[in-house]
């Protein structure tokens, strides 16, 4: 979008503007923007809004049990559909409880509209009851914020926030509305004028830059398409598939981009990074050209940045100019929407190939592919069965994916189970994999799955969670039961904070300080997740042996009248492999793979 005044949906014309309270204006604006579902919990500063939400709208309000749950549910809703997710909270602690979800959405470019109540405008700055400067608190983790002190300011504030959240690089925008602004009457004027003079996201890339990228791609002997979450946010998966097939280049998809390119495609090498596949990691490391599409050269992908892909030229495509050359200097920087840029690059590459001199030699990538296929054969993803008689978590997650299929949505928490879910479930379509990538937020999974199920009621939605993550937001099972949101929860219960425990095993001489949770092993189960599920009105199942895994998953898939919680008791000794330790070169992945059994024994 390049204009200062942005068109918004129109409303039926009337001779006189309708008089609405500020709360009524909030609801009417959301309706006109196409919002159908919101997540929130009331409090003193949003009572006027909630009073009208009950009687004046067809918008579905999901009453959560914690504001963080509202934020993550709105994230899951947005990530499963591409539409803006909406979360509502009261002032003070209600607003601050949203902060984690707002930060999470900011890191992962999730379009989120956070609406918070504020104390009366006459009380602001007096340390009034439940007053917090939520705009100041969230300034570093929002695309923008608005404060509405008067009822007549509300339509433009919310419409502007919605537009900013959903355009350019998506992200969270906060609208803070005083209680008196919600109560007072004002004429509802639609469409409002959106005065955003400093907001001009660049969508169309410079043609010469795209042509330069095409020439590099044509000349490369060892190219790689490095695909990030921006491709999913831009709905650019069809264009990516066409680009890959027209150029023959291998594709790697980051943690945030799983599903952007089909796992079953022969050109897909898997996920790069700390816990990526050996072919994906070494393809980037040894390439002579990296086409980065909506990725930001995150430290978990690059390892030691000074030693990352030392011989590669870089084409960096991103809608956010601040990301270009931030970490790795781009030889060809391209600012633009991934969908448009990839489409232009396909045409530019075809034109460059046609225009090549008849006697010119187009570099042959056959040798590159021979090497990469050899890596795929030599280093397939796999796991060893535990020796302690407990379940292999990788097997459990693999069977969930195989029995459920690629049309489902899988929302993971953070930790070992997150990495196994990224590795051992096959993703064939975008928006099927939801997780907290940049912020690494424990507690994301259950409310995100809940939000995804509200957005996509006809899809199976799994929350793949750890016993540590689950205990942070499991209260939203009550929300699911009461609102008939039948998500499936798989607790990968290793009775510990597994990823921290893995680092302690590898790098701290096995000193497992404060990572044992006592949730699944021995005589004590605190809490007993099956009893907890029953208390929340969900179906609770415990699985302790391999022969029970499939039956439990099939029962969960057949149960659609309530949430399901399966407590899989897995081995605490299982580790995520491969692993490139933090701060070392990605060339270390070969060593890591070769030495994994030794480390696991430790």
List keywords for this structure.
disordered N terminus, disordered C terminus, 3 domains, Rossmann fold, 38% helix, 602 residues, six-stranded parallel sheet, alpha/beta, 16% strand
Could you walk me through the main structural features you see in this protein, from its secondary elements to its overall organization?
There is one protein chain. The protein is an alpha/beta fold and 602 residues long. The protein folds into 3 domains: 18-188, 3-Layer(aba) Sandwich (Rossmann fold); 207-377, TPP-binding domain (Rossmann fold, 3-Layer(aba) Sandwich); 393-576, Rossmann fold (3-Layer(aba) Sandwich). Helix content is 38%, strand content 16%. Helix 7 (154-166) links the parallel strand 6 and strand 7 (172-178). Helix 16 (393-404) runs parallel beside helix 23. The model is unreliable at 1-6 and 595-602 (pLDDT under 50). Residues 21-135 form the Thiamine pyrophosphate enzyme N-terminal TPP-binding domain.
